[in-house]
Design a protein that fits this description.
alpha/beta, Rossmann fold, Jelly Rolls, 17 helices, 33 strands, 22% strand, binds adenosine-5'-triphosphate, RNA binding, RNA-binding, EC 3.6.4.13
């Protein structure tokens, strides 16, 4: 049995993994795979290059394959119609901030300003006298009672809901009238429904508060469901599965004992497609949707899926890549004719396809890879829209699973989204904060045009971005504009110096703008096209060029990949030894992602960031820029209606250091990186020489000293014994 099989992975998948040379699951895989296989929602926070992709792909592929197999054998369609779901609070028919615990019998909302409600999974229709108990378990505001499926979740605010609130008011159709008396923490409210008389009443701690509502005739034939609405409160419910605290009045029965022919299932929140039809008969309805923030990353993940599933036969899993830059007609054709089980895509193209081509009615897995990036890019609304279209529970009782990953998951946006969409998610948080892997040596070099005046006399230099074309930047002056232009010139030189000093023959180089990338590419070609062979990857390059350039770099046909943040996240280039930040990113999490392109899968990597000591004027084309930068030469500052701003890298450096709670090592402009005593000499791009972790290396170093100490200790004890105890013994 392989190590992966021990974590519950199918032998066919484990075989594919073994072929990649993976012997053991990484930490995140060891924690994540069983959780996803177990059916939970998971937030995976782990360092860059730690193997998060497989941590979610492997279990998803496995469950999708098993589901397909069940469908093929007819098992999945044989969902018992004779057993109704248990009487619990529905996880589908509930407000955004209305949490239902795993037993389904305790509910809570911590929203202070709004009411959030929920309904039971089952209701009753027809006749009989029914009751359930609601115990207030915390301070806060609450209303309990009965509602039909037409009622809003804010119980009592329309004619379909009948509630009794803690302030001692009953409410229906927004009419709040005094009733009974106020109740609060530890009080037990018994909710009674008499379908024979069309009457609703309540007891407080067993005391009958009298009739509250008479249900009008039109509504009497509707199904009624236990309902609760809360504002920063918590309630425990008992539908009769355990003994009630207070006996029901004569003739009333616990609601959960409703006979099957009177029981109605709560279908609110189910997709219209999945209430009474087979689990999988639509070709365009995948089981899993994985969203990635960039085309390149989506392609990479899709090819991982292909790798992992290759030994799974009968049935074969069909995956589909849904990204821009590929003819949408091909994707539509695949959806309509070939069928799809797993979709990997970027938000934009997914959005196009859900307009009628792609159905989410069978979706069981919703994965947001690089989730903080997706949310920061403004896809919150789209994610919520997709989520709304997915059934929260399938007819075979399986819950939608959400998996959310990133190396920088500790973002406010992520926590907010998780609270809203995820169901009791488990955090797998190996470090407890955003962190840089030990395998990444990251250093900064200050670019100080006041100290280093070499920019005054450069014969060949990089073409700068032209932000100072309207400024007076004659050399000899020390104005902020002159120093800013000088920084741009110096950075071109420093990049080359870093490459030469470390004999870099493979590196990824991040620039702030597409124009900066193009200028650096041109400069490399100018000084030595062979020695500094390079390609660019950014949003202005055509899709096929982007793909070809990344391929050329991966296959080592060129030495350098010059890119914007499109390649900051997730891109996995085997054994990449070096990366250079020409400019620090203004988004601190992107620093972690950029430098995380090296030091992956236990290989060592060096990341050098150039940091200007003076503010640098840069392009900043916001929504106000009609062309979004294309042929825009408005060099005025944004405050002055222009498209430029002053970029303060020292401030960004401070922000990054504060966020990571470290001081990043500084090296001098000679680019020499001092050897770390602990690591000894490292070869970037390779695993550490002394195999194993630093801990082992340290242990090996310490072993002779510890041995010596043990020997001395033993000698000291013998001397002590001889001197004192032997004397005493002799005296005795
Ligand atoms: N169990 C394993 N054993 C050996 N190598 C592995 C294992 N799991 C993953 N890898 C390798 O580690 C590298 C990083 O994996 P992956 O791209 O999934 O990282 P990640 O955690 O998603 O990183 P990022 O946060 O940058 O996206 C890949 O080259 C992958 O092939």
């Amino acid at each position: 049995m392989t190590a992966f099989e021990e974590f519950g992975v199918l032998p066919e998948i484990a075989k594919a993994v073994e072929e990649l040379g993976w012997i053991l699951p990484t930490d995140i895989q060891a924690e994540g795979i069983p959780l996803v296989l177990g059916g939970g929602d998971v937030l995976m926070a782990a360092e860059t290059g730690s193997g998060k992709t497989a941590a979610f792909c492997l279990p998803i592929i496995q469950i999708v394959w098993e589901t397909l197999k069940d469908i093929e054998s007819g098992k999945a369609n044989r969902i018992s119609k004779s057993t109704s779901p248990p009487w619990t609070m529905s996880i589908m028919d509930r407000g955004n901030a209305f949490a239902v615990d795993p037993t389904g019998l305790r509910v809570q909302s911590r929203e202070l300003r709004e009411w959030h409600g929920g309904r039971c999974t089952c209701g009753v229709q027809g006749s009989g006298k029914w009751g359930f108990e609601a115990t207030v378990t915390d301070e806060g505001l609450c209303r309990v009672g009965w509602s039909t499926l037409e009622a809003s979740l804010d119980l009592g605010t329309d004619r379909f809901g009948f509630g009794f609130g803690g302030t001692g008011k009953k409410s229906n159709n927004k009419q709040f009238d005094n009733y009974g008396e106020a109740f609060g923490k530890n009080d037990v409210i018994t909710c009674l429904l008499d379908l024979d008389k069309g009457e609703i009443a309540f007891l407080k701690n067993g005391i009958d508060l009298g009739s509250a509502f008479t249900v009008d005739k039109q509504l009497r034939n509707s199904a009624f469901f236990p309902a609760v609405v809360l504002k920063n409160a918590e309630i425990a419910l008992n539908f009769g599965s355990t003994k009630f605290k207070y006996t029901l009045p004569t003739g009333f029965c616990p609601i959960c004992s409703t006979p099957r022919d009177l029981t109605v299932i709560n279908t609110n929140g189910y997709s219209s497609l999945d209430t009474n039809k087979s689990t999988k008969n639509a070709k365009n309805a995948p089981f899993a949707v994985i969203i990635e923030p960039s085309r390149e990353l989506a392609e990479q993940t899709c090819s991982q899926v292909k790798n992992f599933k290759k030994y799974l036969e009968n049935p074969k899993i069909k995956e589909l890549l849904v990204i821009g830059g590929i003819n949408i007609k091909d994707q539509i054709y695949a959806l309509q004719n070939e069928g799809v089980d797993i979709i990997v895509g970027t938000p934009g193209r997914l959005e196009d396809l859900i307009q009628g081509y792609l159905s989410l009615a069978n979706c069981r897995f919703f994965v947001l890879d690089e989730a903080d990036g997706l949310l920061k890019q403004g896809y919150t609304e789209l994610i919520e829209r997709l989520y709304r279209q997915m059934p929260k529970l399938t007819t075979d009782g399986r819950r939608l699973q959400m998996i959310v990953c990133s190396a920088t998951l500790h973002a406010f946006e992520v926590k907010k989204m998780a609270e809203k969409l995820m169901h009791f998610p488990t955090w797998i948080d190996l470090k407890g904060e955003d962190a840089v892997p030990e395998t990444v040596h990251h250093v900064i070099v200050k670019v100080d045009p006041q100290k280093d005046r070499s920019w005054c006399s450069l014969r060949k230099h990089i073409q700068t971005d032209g932000v100072h074309s309207q400024d007076n930047i004659r050399p000899g002056m020390n104005s902020p504009e002159v120093l800013s232009e000088a920084v741009k010139l110096l950075k071109g030189e420093y990049v080359v110096k870093a490459i030469d000093e470390h004999n870099m023959d493979r590196a990824i180089i991040f620039c702030r703008t597409k124009l900066d990338c193009d200028n650096l590419e041109r400069y490399f070609k100018l000084i030595d096209a062979k020695k500094y062979s390079c390609v660019c990857l950014h949003g202005d390059r055509k899709p096929h060029e982007r793909k070809a350039n990344l391929e050329a770099f991966k296959k080592e046909q060129v030495k350098f990949l010059i890119c914007t943040d499109v390649a900051a996240r997730g891109i996995d280039i085997t054994e990449l030894p070096f990366m250079i930040n020409v400019t620090l990113p203004d988004e601190k999490s992107n620093y972690v992602h950029r430098i995380g392109r090296v030091g992956r899968a236990e290989r060592m990597g060096l990341a050098i960031s150039l940091v200007s000591t003076v503010p640098e004027k840069v392009w900043y084309h916001g929504e106000w820029c009609k062309t979004r930068g294309r042929n825009c030469w408005n060099t005025r500052l944004t405050d002055d209606g222009g498209c430029c701003m002053w970029y303060n890298e020292m401030q960004y450096l401070a922000d990054i250091e504060e966020h990571l709670n470290i001081t990043i090592q500084q090296i001098q402009p000679d680019m020499k990186v001092p050897c770390d005593e602990f690591d000894g000499k490292v070869v970037y791009g390779q695993k550490r020489k002394l195999t194993g972790s630093t801990y082992q290396t340290h242990t090996v170093q310490m072993a002779p000293i510890v041995k010596e100490l043990a020997k001395l200790e033993s000698e000291a004890q013998i001397i002590f014994l001889k001197r004192h105890y032997l004397k005493i013994c002799r005296r005795v």
